[in-house]
Amino acid sequence: MRGGCLMEKHEDFIKEVKGRKNLWTIPKRGNMRVPAFIYGDNVIIDELKADYQRDWSATRQMINVASLPGIQKGMLAMSDVHPGYGFPIGGVAAFDAEEGVVSMAGVGYDINCGVRTMLTDLTNNDLNAKKEDIINELFRTVPAGLGKPGKVKLTIAQVDELLTGGAPYVVEMGYGNEEDLLFSEQKGVAKGANPANVSDKAKRRQYDQIGTLGSGNHYLELQIVDRIFDESVANAFGLFKDQVITTLHCGSRGLGHQIGTDYSTLLVRASKKYNLPLPDKELGSAPITSEEGQRYISAVNAGINAALANRQVIAHLVREAFRKVFNVEVHQLYDVGHNTCKFEEHGGKNVLVHRKGSTRAFGPGHPELHSRYQSVGQPVLIGGTMGTSSYILTGTKLGMEETFGSACHGAGRSMSRTQAKKKYWGKTVIQNLAQKGITVKAHSFAGVAEEAPGAYKDVNRVVNAMHDSGVVKKVAQVRPVGVIKG
Amino acid sequence: MSYEYFEHRADIGIRGIGENIKEAFEQIAMALFAIMVEIQEVEKKEIEKVTVEGLDYEELLIAWLSELLYLKDVGNKMYSKFHILEIEKTSLNAEILGEKIDLKKHKLKLEVKAATWTQLEVKRFNNKWIAQCVVDV
C-alpha cells in the first residue's frame, strides 16, 4: 500500500467543521504537521471516503503533503479534489519561504496549464448565421492535436528571451496587445525565471510548439453566457446574458513536460539528500532555500512564462478569426493558471503557494488586481466538459483568509480514460452533442471518447460546493456551442 | 513478450512484459507509442541511437521513456520498433526505428506528456520481467 498504512476507517478521521457549510477537516495525526481541510458537499466527501480504500487515494496524498516541513495552516483540497501525482488535484499547500520546501508534485507536468477567457459584444442571435464559419475558421487557424506545429518558430536565443519575457515578449512580436497583459495574472510574466536552469531538451521541445493547443483535456470553446448570478460583478467583468465569449485551456506544452520530467528525478534525489519525508516516490521536494529548490523554482517560472506566451499567441489567432468572420474585436476577461507555485504574501508572511489543479482566486482589494476588478475580486475561470457548463466566479475576502486566495479548477474526472473509451464512441459523442447544439471539431475521435462529458464529475456540484462555502462567489454560468479538441 | 495497459483514474498505466529486462523495456516503449498512434502504420524508415542513464532500474525506465517522448517531439516523429542493444542497472543503449509524422498517413491519437513515478516498478514476476509506470496525458 502506498503512502503509509492507515488502517482505521475513514469515518474516524474526516470530520465536519462545526458552524461551516461544506468545510471538512482531517485533524493532525501521524506525521502530519498541520491538519487538512476539504471543501465539498456530502457527495464529494463520500467519494473521497470511498477513495481512501483504494490504492490511489487523494486523502492519503493530502496526509502525505501535510507532513512536509514548513507547511502553513493546512493542506487544502478544493471541491474538485481527486488523486494526482503525489499531490491531490484540486490541492493547495503554502510553505514558509524560509523554512519550507518546494515540491514538483505540487505543480505537475503541465506547468501553468490554465484558462483564458475573451469576450465579444456579439449575442447568441448574431452568432447563429455564422456559427459554423467561426468554428471552421478557429479549427483551421489554431493548431491542435499531435504533430501540429505552431506558426511561431523560435531560435534557441529567442526561446531564452521568451522564458524570461512571457506574454509581453510575444505581444512585442505582434501577437496581442497591452490590454491582454493588464488582464492576466502577474501581467503575463512571472519574475525570477532563469533559462539557465531549463535543459536544452526542454528548450528544443519549444521551438515550434508556441501557440499550439495540444491534446488530452485541452480545448478551445465558443460559449454563450447562459446565466448571471451577480449583476454588479458581471458588469465589472463586462459580462451579459446571451453574450458570445471564447475560452481556451492549455499549458506549457513539451517545454513544461520536460521541466517536470527533469526535476522529478532531481527532487527525488534532493529529498534523500536533505532527509525530507518521501512517503511517495512522486512527492520529491527540496528546501526552498537550497540550490535544488532555487533552481526548480526558477525553472517553474520559465515554464509559467512559456504557458502565458502560448496562450497569448492562441488568443491572437482567435482574435484574428473573429475579425475575419464577424469584423469584431475580442477583449480579454482574464488569464489564470491552475498548475503553479508562486511566492505570495498572506497574513503578512511570505509563502510559496502550490496550486495543483487549483485556480488563484484573489478577493477584492488585492493590490495585484487591475483597477477594474479592485472592488469585486479577480475573475476565476472554471472549465467544465464538452457537454456541460463552465463557470466564471470571483474571489472573496474569506477565500483570502482561508485558502490563500484559491479555488477549484474544473470538474475532475470520475472515470478512467480506458473506461471512457470502452463506454463511449467518439463519433456518437459528437452526434449527441450536435443534437444539443454543440458543434465539436476534433483531430482524434479516440480523444473525444476519452473526454466524453459522462467521464467527468458534475461541474455544477463542484462549483456550488465551493460557492456555498463562501470561498468564491458565482458570477456567471456559460455553455459551450462550439468545441475544438486536439 | 507483450504490453498492456492498467487502469488509472485520470491517466493511463503502461506495462511491458518480457522474458528478460531488455524485452520488458522494449515492450513498454511499444505501449507508450501505441497510445499516441496506430503503431502498425508507422514505418521503420529511420534509425536513431539512444543512450540513457539512471541511478537504478526505476530511474532508468523514466529516463528511457522520457528520452523517447523528447525525440518524438523534436523530430516530429513516431516510432514503432525499439531494439535495446545493452542494458545494465544504470544505463542502456538502444536503436529505435520510426518515421516523420505524416498527418495524411498516420492516425494520431492522444499525446503523452510525461512518464511519471506513479506505480513505477521494474521487477521479476512469475518468471517474467515487468516494467511499468503511469503516464500523464
Q: CATH topology of chain B, what is it called? A: Archease, Possible Chaperone, Chain: A, domain 1
Specify the CATH class of chain B.
Answer: Alpha Beta
Biggest beta sheet summary of chain A: 8 strands, mixed
Identify the overall geometry of chain A.
globular
Helix content of chain A: 25-40%
* Most extensive chain-chain interface: A-B, 47 and 39 residues
What's the overall geometry of chain B?
globular
Helix content of chain B: 25-40%
Look at the structure and name the CATH superfamily of chain A. Answer: tRNA-splicing ligase RtcB
Count all strands of chain A and give the number: 19
| Oligomeric form | heterodimer
- Element pattern of chain B in H and E: EEHEHEEEEE
Which CATH top level class of chain A fits?
Alpha Beta
Straight-line N-to-C gap of chain B: 25 Å
Q: Could you list some keywords that capture this structure?
A:
heterodimer; A: 486 residues; alpha+beta; tRNA-splicing ligase RtcB; 34% helix; globular; disordered N terminus; B: 137 residues; Archease, Possible Chaperone, Chain: A, domain 1; 5-stranded antiparallel β-sheet; 3-stranded antiparallel β-sheet; 8 strands; 42% strand
